[in-house]
Structure prediction request, 453 residues.
Amino acid sequence: MAAFARRLSLAEASGLSLSVIAPTITAAFNITLVVQAAGSAAPLTFAIGTLAIALVAVSFVAFTRRVAHAGSAYAYITHTFGSRAGFLAGWTLLLTYLGFASGFAGLVGSFGATVLRQAGFDVGRGWILIGVASMVLAWWFAYRDMRLAGRLMLALEAAAVLAIVALCILVLRAVQPTPAAMLATFEPQTAFGGWTGIAAGMVFTVLSFGGFEGAATLGEETVNPRRSIPVAMFATVILAGVFFMFVAFCEVLGYGQAGIGDLAHADAPLNDLAVRFASPRLATLLDLATATSAFSGVMGALAAAARVLFALGRAGLAPRLARIDARHGTPVPAIAVSAVLIIVPFVVAAPWCGGASYYSYASTVGTLALMLIYVGVGGAESVEAWREQRRGWALTCLLGPVILLWALFRTVYPVPDFPNNLWPYVVLAWIAAATALLRLRPAVAQAPLPDYL
Prediction:
C-alpha cells in the first residue's frame, strides 16, 4: 500500500494551515463581508468566531492524538461513526478545499492585475490568465516538494502580516480613538439586525478560519505528528484570531462610524487606509502582499484537497489516486485531479462575475461545507469523550458545533438574496453525489481505517 515518507517539520505543517487560512485575505477582503452583515461590530463577530473555532480546534487536536491520517476529518469521523459517514465527511471536506483553492485564484488575478495597473500596465481581462497561471504554478509546487511549498507559504504569509500590522499601528496613531468608539466595536448594531447580523457575519468569520485544520492532512508526512499537528493547528487558530480582531478593530476605527457603509462595500480597504494614513507606495505593497497571500492559499488548499482525495482513493474510491511519486513523495495523480477540479470552474465562471465575486461565491460554498465538517468533528469528539466517561469534556466539545449550527441556520433563514441563496443547494448536491458514489464504489463503506504512524 502506498505510504508517505515522514520528512515535514512543525514549521512546514504550520505553513499549510496558515496558507489556507490566508490571514492577509481576511484583512484585505473578508472583513468587508463581515461588516456588511454586522456593521461596526465586526471585531465582536470575530471574537465569537474565534471562540467557536477554538472549541472545534480542541476536537481536532484530540483526534490528531489518536489518528495520524491524510484524510483528516474523513479519518476522525470514520473512527467514531464508521466508514460510510467518514466517506461523506471526506467528500464534503474535499469540496471545501477545492472551493478555497479556486476562489483564491480569483483574488490572485484581481489583486495581481491591480498591482500591474498601478505600475502602468493595464492588463484588462488578463487577470483571468493570472488566476489560471497561479493554479498551474501551485500545481507544480504541490507536485515537486511539500517541504519547499510549506516554507514558501509560511514566508509569504509572515511578510504580508507584518506589513498589515504596520499599517494598523499607523491608523491607530492617527485616529487616536476614544474609549466610547472602541467599545462600540464590541456591541451588536441595531442598524444591522443586532445578534442576527452577528450570526450572519459568523459565516465569514468561519471562512476566515477555514483551513486551520489543513495541517492534519499532513499527518502521514510530518515528523512526530501527535505533537506537531496539534501545535500547528491550535497555534494557528489563536494567533489568527488575535490578528483578525485587531485588524477588524483598526479598519472600523480607520473608516469611522460615518464610513461603515464605505467599508462594507470597499473593494480594497487596506489600500484605502494606506493611501489615507500612509502613502500610495504602501498601498501598492499591500496589494502585492494580498496577491502573494492568495497564491499561498491556492497552494495550501490544493495540497490539502489532493491529500483528502488521495485518502478517499486509497479507501476504494479509485486506487489510481492512491499512488505516491517515489522521487518527490507527493500524491501526483490526486494532485492532478484536484488541480483540474479547481481550474475548470474558474475558467467557466470567473470571467462572468469577476475575481472578487468569484472568490466570494466559491469560498462561501467551501465554508458552508466546512461548517458541516466542524460540526461533525465536534460531535464525534463529544461521542468519544462520553464513551470514555468524560462527561464535562463531552459537553464542552458540543459548544462549538452548537454555535456553528446557529450560524448555519442564519445562512438559510431569512433567505439571502440571489445568488447567495443558491450556495447551500450546491453543497447539498455535492453531498448527494457522495451517496451515489457509495453505490458505485461500495468498498469505501467498508474500508478499514489504519493509523499511519
